[in-house]
Batch of 2 targets.
Target 1
Amino acid sequence: MTPMIVVISSPSGGGKTRITQRLVSDRLDCGYSVSATTRAPRPGEVDGVAYHFLSADAFERRVQNGEFAEHAVYNGNRYGTLTSELVKVMHGGQHAVLDIEVIGARQVRARFPDAVLVFVVPPTGAVLAKRLRDRATEPEAVVAGRLRRAIDEISAAVEYDYVVVNDEFELAVSAVNAILDAEARRTSRQRDFTVVLDRLRAEVGAELLRATSGH
Ligand code: 5GP
């Protein structure tokens, strides 16, 4: 198995975080890429698990050192994927799953053309608005801001390799699983592919010999 980079994006409320969490908890071949951010931890978020929480200075220093595979600003806070995080997950033999927004995803695409980009969309605008209102304890203005941003984010979906509609959650998870399973079977991703073919050819040759020698 050749580890790959898997990007999951969606508008806020689209379901990317839940889907990402399911992938990494269900699949032994997937590991979560823990991002760095300058935003403050939310209640229950543990440093190094949800995010690597960094000060603005520490984040900028790492940018200057070229430590980020991608980084972007979202809602006034900085977010980024440390190259060391990708190396850790992929050297451990797992696909690195990134839950990131669209600007960062573009940088991943440019830097790692083999990465698999999946965009998750809600089935309708009404469903998206309902999900945002249901989960948010935030004022209606914040919901409006998220809907406004969602319009731009949805426009970026055409740049992704796959689009998955998250209507029924379990079906969306199955669709993403199917995408990963198919991508992992690409001949270009199977490092030992020629070895397997060589062995198979030799085995078939031996069978042919047996069949034609009358034994
Ligand atoms: P939140 O603050 O709600 O956890 O995340 C806000 C947004 O930042 C989400 O769209 C999330 O996908 C995105 N995000 C999280 N980590 C990264 C990252 O490392 N890079 C980029 N570009 N976006 C990220």
Note: Residues 35, 39, 70, 72, 74, 79-81, 99-101, 103-104 surround guanosine-5'-monophosphate (CB under 6 Å).
Target 2
Amino acid sequence: MARLVIVSNRVPIPKARSAAAGGLAVALRDLMIPGSMWFGWSGRLSGEPAAQPALVEARGVNYATIDLTAEAHRAFYVGFANGALWPLLHFRLGLMHFRREDYAGYLAVNATFASALSQVLQADDMVWAHDYHLLPFGRILRRHGFAGPMGFFLHVPFVPPSVLEAIPVARELVTDLCAYDVVGFQTEEHARDFRDCAHRLLGATIDGEWVRLNGRRMRAFANPIGIDAEAFGQEARRSAGDKLVARVANSMAGRVLAIGVDRMDYSKGLPNRFEAYGILLERHPEHRRRIHFLQICPRSREEVDEYRKLRAELDRLTGRVNGRFSDFDWTPLRYSTRPAPRSTLAGLYRIGRIGVVTPLRDGMNLVAKEFVAAQPEEDPGVLVLSRFAGAAQELTEALIVNPFDGDAIADAMHLALTMSLDERRARHAALNAKVHRTNAEQFCRRFIDALMSPLPTLQAA
Ligand code: GDG
């Protein structure tokens, strides 16, 4: 079988990976089959980066990394990827800052990646690139002569043509994705939006999942990402004895725990969530003093202005909810920006009666799946889930809410707090079965199968 080469912006080399809080790192960390390679940025900035990747072997996997200069990283990561593409792909056009020089820097880093990888790539390798940092990577790698199978998975949403067209380089971005053989999306809707863009912006012919452009075909399909639900459930059971989990459980004094876990990102709907919690306490005085909301949100991308503003906004809203409702011995909302170890997180989900996952847009949202996998089957908690998270397409037995509607989130939390044990069990059993079925292994297997299957014979147009 061909060697698998994963390419992503950051490379979670095993000794450093436990600190990583991010969906991609979590989803892929168990995928690395001995013999495969993972290539990307080392996480280091240097004045004169070497053109050759540095190679490290860990647990049979080869990690190949390159350093970047501070200017290159700024334009590529802070400027274009997170200043323009991230807001665009999360439907936040008002937050999109497009600058031609950032786009030029983004292309330049993708070219650096392609040139460095081509030095260690073998002809019979199979390349799988990940996420919005690397849209043009495959097209550029082809220019270096690589002819093997080349796939791409987009972890974030894709947008319809009317939204994509707001970015001046919309056609270039769609052309770039069409250069891969296979492109995977989190949901059918994202895959369809991409095919619509290829048709409307480039005049491509669409036939089911197949996109035909300039005499070439590529496949754009939905392949929802999953977690290793079995292992995560075990971790949650084991970590009941974790010191921090036990401390939190003891501090509850018979109250129930509502829990949210998100990188501090404006796509995650945190201000709306805090306000909705205030509405719950206002409208349902019977829940006051009987619930604690714990929001864990490690700081993220602080180089980008919008993320700093979000932090100030959350500090203000936390103060408002606690100022309005807290008592001498009860703080309704606790919010921590420190990342928790993964096992502690699993244990905290397990003691949560409500998992609150209300992003304004999200490719998938792994937290929703982790919360379900961590629950005790005999007395499970309830998931409140945004309809705009990819996970809502599958996890239909959750309480699905519109995250822009604070009253609806408050109603769902009230329903969760008053739901009968039978109903909680029935909903959880259905959700848990899905989370175990669409797991990380199936996600990887489906993608690699798609990448390895020969292209179907082209029907005469
Ligand atoms: C992108 C897409 C898509 C969070 N806080 C801590 C911590 N985490 C872990 C969670 C979860 C992961 O980070 C976050 O994954 P999400 O899926 O929720 O969100 P993104 O980071 O935005 O990920 C997303 C994902 O890629 C995968 O394709 O689902 O839509 O945006 O695993 O548990 N982990 C630890 N401490 C924390 O404090 N250890």
Note: The chain is about 45% helix and 20% strand.
